[in-house]
Amino acid sequence: MDRRSFIANLGVFSGSLAIACSSLGRRAEVLGQTGDVSKYRAFGFGELFPTPAKNTGEVVLKLPKGFEYTVIGKAGDKLSDGRITPRAHDGMATFKVGKELRLVRNHEVTGGRIPRPGSAIGAANHYDETCGGGTTTLIIDPKTRLIVRDFVSLSGTLVNCAGGPTPWGSWISCEETTIGPTIRTDAKGNKTGGFPKPHGYCFEVSASANNNLPPVPLKAMGRFEHEAVAVDPKSGVVYLTEDFATCGLYRFLPKRNKRLAEGGRLQMLAVKGKPDYDTRTKQTMRSSMAATWVTIDDPDPASADVDTLSVYKQGKAKGAATFGRLEGICADKNGAVYFTATIGGDSRGGQIWKYEATSNDEGRLTLLFESPSRQLLDMPDNVCLMPKSELLFVCEDSDYVGEGGTPENLVRILTPDGRIADFAVNIYEKSPRSEFAGTTFSRDGKTLSFNIQSAGVTCAVWGDWSRFKA
User: Fold this and answer.
1) Full DSSP string of 117-184
2) DSSP structure class, residue 86
3) 206-253, pLDDT tens digit by residue?
4) pLDDT at 24
5) What does the alpha-carbon distance between residue 138 and residue 81 come to, in Å, rounded to a whole number?
6) Neighbours of 212 (CB within 10 A)
7) What are the pLDDT digits (tens) for 285-294?
8) With contact defined as beta carbons under 8 Å apart, do 223 and 310 qualify?
């Protein structure tokens, strides 16, 4: 099915942005008067049902009728290289290496944010042997969706939350902490830090590597609480998100395309004509703003050891914009990037933004969707686009019930006309409140994989993707 037929099958309006805006405006007006969010809902693939895993029989997910899945790569299982599968599965991407289907998967291991000698997950080639984070690579049979071989592919890093794939066949794994040698003491007297190496960097992992190679921190890409990255396939520009209550959207301009370790320039997004703009509240869905970029003079400040926001503060001082916990990000084939602000919006249920470059130095920032109710969308995290479509698959991280969040976590779908469909619910009895993470499609669009983080499991899902209804 080609892109045009697929979009027509969705029932998506082919009118202008003005029509989409007016439709959203009417929905917002109805919501304000009645509290009814049904106008924001899409049918999707239909009602969700408890579904046993094809290989283990465990009931981990609710899925639409006709969809199947396997449960693979569990925390604690022995890897093919003899090591043990780490816990805290998070960001992930799918690659085609020769005839193989490969997943490169993050492990957001914190280790209590203190050094723990001997905790590195690999047998050798550690960045910091006192840290238990990193990545594993899973080689998957594309027919059975079962593991052929798996192994450690990055060792000795810390709090590897998300990251993103590159067009040249690698995974950028990101550390969501800036802890380093300095010992920090909080208001309660708890101490963290004291590591042999500084943390807060991105690391590149080759998807075709068959073991963990010596890691190289990409220091020019900034030292902050990294979440995820997306790469413009045409220009090679790398976009980066920062997971903090006050944070920025960054881009990295490499000196040489595909050679990130050779350095480059880090910048932070600013709204043109509105210095120090705060995007977190009082925004209008489908509204667009002209955007530009300010340069970060010191992307790797020593002060990050004790000040998580050292990089952000440099951008803010130059008028850059503030977002609320930027997490997932992905790029389409034209280089537009879609990213989530997990606590953004008046309901704090989350925002989904889009940035499109209009020149080398400027672009358009558009608020695609803001959750009007946390029952509809609650704290969006990792995202990916379904191949040959404009459907955005969104992982929820809504584990903050005491702060108005919902008790369940779902994988949701955002349609091009701004409606939400439900795709999967976590009902795993071993970890029913866990967030989803690492949503990623195989290149052929046949398999959607994602993680249930706290449970430490990866799910590979398949079915008839063509029957989506808006």
Assistant:
1) TT--SSSS-BS-TT--EEEEEEEE-TTT--EEEEEEEEEEES-EEEEEE-TTSEEEEEE-----SSEE
2) P
3) 999 999 999 999 999 999 999 999 999 999 999 999 999 999 999 999
4) 54
5) 11
6) 27
7) 999 999 999 9
8) yes
